[in-house]
Amino acid sequence: MDATTISQAVEQLKTTILDSIRHNVLLKYTGTPLLNEQQLFFLLLPKLNGEAWDDEVTKSAVTVGIVHSSLAEHDKIYATNAVSKEQQLTVLSGDYYSGRYYQLLAQTGNIELIRKLSEAIVERCEQEMTVYEHERRTFQEWIHSIATIETALIERFFSVYQYDSYKQVMQQTLTIARLNRELMSLPQGATSLYIERMAMSLEGQPIAQVLEQEITERKRALNATLATSTYSETLQQIIVEMVS
């Protein structure tokens, strides 16, 4: 499978997800729902690598994509601050997408998937809430929170369909990609709460330097994992480009 075919597969998944949650009023006021194409790629990775895949798995992958989109909408704004029509509809869009993924999950009848995704949503939200707590945490604990937010849903999806061998590369890549985004935000002054909390945990060490070291070590581990994987050269190249 070449890079063009892979890109088309990811785009098709994205289109299917957007079609599943399309609502004209929400599109008008809140724009196109947020979807992370790197996460979509990893949802499809077992299929792209030749694993068994059927319509049920496709529907489940679409559902996971909708969950990600729903949570991304809720991340934009909290209901207590929703004062304008656009803000109110942003909150409503997250609720609407939530309803759609529950509807699709019910249609699959896959109780195990429902249970696993529910666990992942709770775990992800718990980690997101840590930035608002005053509990002292280490730098690595903050890294763990970020990794969970980026990967928990896909990790559970892999578990349900016995794609466990894909977890490590997925977790390594998506965590590095998120850390790269956080690092790139530093010179622009658009730092997130996670950067602020991580910096506080370092007690004076330069956050940029520590992040660069963390990313370098994680890239080294990822490259070692890819070197022993059965992924095609094209898939490996795409993954390496994600963390470049």
Provide a descriptive summary of the structure in words:
The protein is mainly α and about 240 residues long. The protein has a single domain (about 5-240), classed as Farnesyl Diphosphate Synthase. It has helices at about 5-20, 25-30, 35-50, 55-75, 85-110, 110-130, 140-160, 165-185, 195-200, 205-225, 235-240.
Write a short abstract of this structure.
The protein is an all-alpha fold and 244 residues long. The chain has a single domain (3-242), classed as Farnesyl Diphosphate Synthase. It contains 11 helices and no strands.
Can you tag this structure with a few keywords?
globular, Farnesyl Diphosphate Synthase
β-strand amount: under 5%
What is the straight-line distance between the termini?
22 Å
Assembly state here? single chain
Summed up, the domain count is 1
Describe the main β-sheet briefly: none
Q: What is the level 1 CATH name?
A: Mainly Alpha
Residue ranges: pLDDT <50 for 5 or more in a row? Answer: 24-30, 78-85, 88-94
CATH T-level topology:
Farnesyl Diphosphate Synthase
Report the helical percentage.
Answer: over 70%
CATH architecture label name: Orthogonal Bundle
How many separate helices? 11
